[in-house]
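BUG: 3D viewer hangs when loading the predicted structure for this chain

Environment: internal workstation, default settings.
Expected: structure renders.
Actual: progress bar stalls at 90%.

Input used:
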Amino acid sequence: MECTVNKIWSTLDSSSPRTISFLSEKDPWRYLLTVMLSASTTDRQAEKAAASLFALYPDPPSVASAPIPMIEELIRPAGLSRSKAPRLKAVSSYIAMHGLPGSEEELMSLPGIGEKTAACYLDHVLGLPAVIADTHFVRVARRLGFTDTVDRNKAAKEIRERFPSSVWSRMSMVLNLHGRTVCRPSPHCTECPVRGLCPSSEACSVGS
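Structure tokens produced before the viewer hung:
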């Protein structure tokens, strides 16, 4: 079984683009807030909301001092603005006072920062190995037999235990992209480079 799993990963890795990115933001603080905005919405809507926010409030101190109703209005395209706005303000206040978080523990102590957001920051900002378990990732990982759970945190834990840290970040991007383009909720198995190895391919081909 492990031999098959490793073969699936090797094939999927080699058939995927060498560089994969879903958010264009490079500034660490702005990137963190954009990831927070992406919860329960698309990357496109998150970036639209972030652009509106940063046009008026371009740095941590300005967001920290901004009225919450104004933040809510600016980030409305990302949805859940009433819950997201105070969290963006609180995280910006923390960063304005203490600087950027430098560890997972520090990140997770901030409001609105869950395991997925923390993993994105660890990977893209701190350059540390991380498993970014979003909806696409978990769906693909489960279909490929990398995990047997639909729980994001449990799936991330199983991937970390099963694969070396050297592939965590790359696997996060590859499986996410594969889930967006091929292994969608209604999968396109005939287009999949690992259809001959995937334990779900037969079921997928008939619409499961």
